[in-house]
């Protein structure tokens, strides 16, 4: 059975709003990274050489590529609930996690691994809440337990126990934050249970880093191995910084919720703007280069979008 690929067309207004929004985003991605003047994907076609492995949470608010403003190919990313690393088990354990770490270290030969935790983590909150109910003498019927989330986050019980030491009576939110920070440290420790990770670290070929993104303040914290504490790597954003970049950012990427209602109109705005850029570029391009300039779905020549 052969597979047919139909000709590309622009989404019509009757399509699902989310599809319009995401496909419009993919068009902008194409214009930014598949432009003839941008050689990145010509290099990536030959293979990947990421700068680091980032182990991050599956939480939709903490995409490492967006948070670090990285390019395609810069980061090899492993995402799971609560950005946890389970200890090494020869020939078993968390196979998907182990395979990603093994590929990054042994085959891609990354020189850095970053464990990126974050505030308001749902996985850690579930662990802290369940433990609090058990300690309070409440019985948790099996019907209330998640089939997979509970067993996955149980590896962080040791982080929660460390967080609770010396804390006294505190609210669950404070306990969860402390557990989030300790779980980053626990994951760093668990990484060293992998023999080939430990060997690379001891040989100086690999460095481990612990980060914590505070959604509430906008800070990025880094774990200081020497001081055994977190310190700001990037401080809180200042109001004047947000004001100075806000207008430009809004022009480049309209607010996300607008795509749902005005996706087609917004795409037309980008289409007309890039058409004009394309006309200017085409007018100054040598004749033998003009046929390679990017074109819109309707054949209009595009200039560089982003």
Q: Can you put this structure into words, describing what you see?
A:
With 306 residues, the protein is of the alpha/beta class. It folds into two domains: 46-237, 3-Layer(aba) Sandwich (Beta-carbonic Anhydrase, Chain A); 239-306, no CATH class. The protein has helices at 17-33, 40-44, 64-68, 95-107, 122-135, 149-153, 157-164, 172-191, 195-202, 239-252, 256-284, 287-290, and strands at residues 52-57, 75-80, 112-118, 207-213, 220-224, 229-234. It has a six-stranded mixed sheet, covered by helices on one side. Helix 1 packs parallel to helix 11 (256-284) and helix 5 (122-135) packs across helix 8. The longest helix has 29 residues, at 256-284.
Low-confidence stretches: 246-254, 287-306
Average per-residue pLDDT, rounded, comes to 80
Number of domains: 2
How much helix is in the residues? Answer: 40-55%
């Amino acid at each position: 059975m052969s597979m047919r690929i139909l000709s590309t067309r622009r989404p019509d207004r009757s399509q699902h709003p989310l599809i319009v929004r995401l496909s419009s985003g993919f068009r902008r991605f194409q214009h930014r990274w598949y432009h003839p003047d941008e050689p990145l994907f010509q290099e990536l076609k030959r293979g990947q050489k990421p700068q680091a492995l980032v182990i991050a949470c599956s939480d939709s608010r903490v995409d490492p590529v967006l948070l670090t403003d990285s390019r395609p190919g810069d980061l090899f990313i492993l995402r799971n609930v609560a950005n946890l690393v389970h200890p090494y088990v020869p020939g078993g354990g968390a196979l998907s996690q182990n395979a990603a770490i093994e590929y990054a270290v042994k085959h891609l030969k990354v020189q850095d691994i970053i464990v990126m935790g974050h505030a308001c983590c749902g996985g850690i909150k579930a662990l802290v809440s369940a433990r609090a109910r058990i300690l309070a003498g409440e019985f948790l019927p099996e019907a209330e337990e998640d089939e997979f989330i509970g067993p996955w986050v149980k590896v962080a019980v040791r982080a929660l126990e460390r967080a609770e030491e010396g804390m006294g009576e505190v609210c669950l939110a404070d306990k969860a934050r402390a557990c989030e920070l300790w779980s980053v440290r626990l994951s760093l420790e668990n990484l060293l249970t992998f023999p080939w990770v430990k060997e690379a670290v001891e040989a100086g070929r690999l460095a481990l880093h612990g980060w914590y993104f505070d959604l509430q303040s906008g800070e990025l914290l880094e774990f200081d191995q020497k001081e055994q504490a977190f310190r700001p790597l990037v401080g809180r954003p200042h109001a004047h910084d947000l004001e100075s970049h806000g207008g430009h950012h809004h022009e480049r990427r309209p607010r996300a919720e607008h795509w749902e209602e005005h996706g087609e109109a917004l795409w037309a705005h980008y289409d007309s703007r890039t058409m004009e850029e394309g006309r200017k570029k085409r007018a100054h391009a040598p004749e033998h280069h003009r046929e390679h300039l990017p074109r819109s779905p309707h054949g209009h020549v595009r200039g560089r979008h982003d």
